[in-house]
Amino acid sequence: xxxxxxxxxxxxxxxxxxxxxxxxxxxxxxxxxxxxxxxxxxxxxxxxxxxxxxxxxxxxxxxxxxxxxxxxxxxxxxxxxxxxxxxxxxxxxxxxxxxxxxxxxxxxxxxxxxxxxxxxxxxxxxxxxxxxxxxxxxxxxxxxxxxxxxxxxxxxxxxxxxxxxxxxxxxxxxxxxxxxxxxxxxxxxxxxxxxxxxxxxxxxxxxxxxxxxxxxxxxxxxxxxxxxxxxxxxxxxxxxxxxxxxxxxxxxxxxxxxxxxxxxxxxxxxxxxxxxxxxxxxxxxxxxxxxxxxxxxxxxxxxxxxxxxxxxxxxxxxxxxxxxxxxxxxxxxxxxxxxxxxxxxxxxxxxxxxxxxxxxxxxxxxxxxxxxxxxxxxxxxxxxxxxxxxxx
Length: 392
Hints:
The chain is α/β, with parallel strands linked by helices. It folds into three domains: about 180 residues, Ribonuclease H-like superfamily/Ribonuclease H (Nucleotidyltransferase, domain 5, 2-Layer Sandwich); about 100 residues, DNA polymerase, domain 1, CATH 1.10.150; about 80 residues, DNA polymerase, domain 1 (Orthogonal Bundle). The protein is about 45% helix and about 10% strand. The chain contains 17 helices and seven strands. The strands form two sheets. Strands 3-2-1-4-5 form a five-stranded mixed β-sheet. A two-stranded antiparallel sheet has the order 6-7. Strand 6 and strand 7 form a beta hairpin. The chain starts with 6 loop residues before the first helix and ends in a 9-residue tail after the last strand.
């Protein structure tokens, strides 16, 4: 087996996929020591044709592949698509429309975040050879075993997708999954603008001075990581950003005295630039600090107990529907519902199909209109009949 290594071969292969209703796609990449993922192999399969594509080949231009990813008439099928989508987005080719079989597996009763090999085993009754799973995909030449392993990822995916789609359509859940795919292709998820880097973190305070420094240090780290092509954590740990924002050091000694900053950091090549970023933020914190929504009133004391009841309800409703509970609601969703003073908590659990599957019952449980009853080993949800109080 020989991977596609020239632009002419790639153009011919991509042309053969024109008109296909869907293609299965996977990538192999390396990023353990880099900021930017290094794309090492792309695997694509249609109904009749499949191939491995070598993006590291000297005589290849990936434009035909990127045009294929941009072709909105073809559905692109991935498993656990997030990092694959990030790579194509970085190349300017967001794969639209998209279908993620891992997300679909949650709606089809295969549990939360089912692994690809487990999905293949359960749906196709095939055991995948994992001997080439942990390999350096950047080395050339790739062995026959490596290429066979990589290509199997998409050939199996192309076979199981129609089966999974049929299963979802019969259960009336195709629309559930389709509504989830938009979040995977939201460009904001893959935004690498340094000025927006703070949004991926959790500021612990809301003071203007703290937020200004927090944003400045997060932007400095992101910019430095991109320029040096190193992981963010190798430049500065997340906890250090919070400590620097809290202490706002403006000298090398103050920076070196921090627990979360590596010893001697101020004297390194990074120190002066970081201190300069802090000083710039402190020069006009009102202009530099991001504007955050003010925290709402504290939740009622009973909110913790309500959350625990909602967890039981969620598990019961998920089991009844044969759906992974994570697809319906998260703990954060439950906390928002419990803390809300009315029935308008800003959470996906109270919109669309989730409201029908769980949200309405969650609100009723919170209002005391539903009760949870243990029936053997199973939890049942029953309506509470309120007896009117006698007059007088």
